[in-house]
Predict the 3D structure of the following.
Amino acid sequence: MAGPQLVWDLARATGFLAYLLLTASVLLGLVLSLKWRSSGWPRFISSELHEYLGLLSLLALGAHTLAIALDPFMGFTLAELAVPMASHYRPLWLAPGILGTYLVVGVWYSKRLRSRIGYSWWHRLHLMTFAAFVLSTVHGLGMGSDSRTAWAGLIYAGAAVMVISLTAARLLTPTPPEPAHPWVALAGALLALWTLSWAVAGPLRPGWALIANSGHGSGARTSSPVQVASPTPGTGLP
């Protein structure tokens, strides 16, 4: 069964690749908003790289979705991959991934509408990148089969620490004409603590695979009936 295994490995790899590219895009966007400069690295290069990383994350998300759609074991329909909460498998944790994908598409496309909608609205739409990052993190932890591995934990933890640190620096540092936003920073810190407590009590503990799917098993699509073992003669036990 090399084919299904290859598709599944591709889905996992492209999922993490999309997450890393999205994280890099968010971090570079924060660096630009903080107006950190280097004489050997012009700002326009960072701006172009920021947009390019967003496009690459979008392409990786497309490859991830395609690989999931082609997985014969799970048997997702196109509707399940496009409509939140329509999935037969872990609908609550697939939904954030779907919504995050839509946000990434919207943020990337908003650059094409900037001249029409103006800078203020474009900036508001661009902030949806943070929501996409949070939704992608929840989706990866709740849906991914690698969430409890050490390397996946390092990826999620490292991404969260870097994004939270730079976001706090951005919110607590006044950048005229904008003042500092300490209350928003506090709300972000509380959200980060809630996400951490949820991850520890949920995806990072044993038995999450059954809990996440509401006791409905692996979610595999199969047309063959489940065989139930007959009682052993003389024992009365199934």
The mean pLDDT is 84.
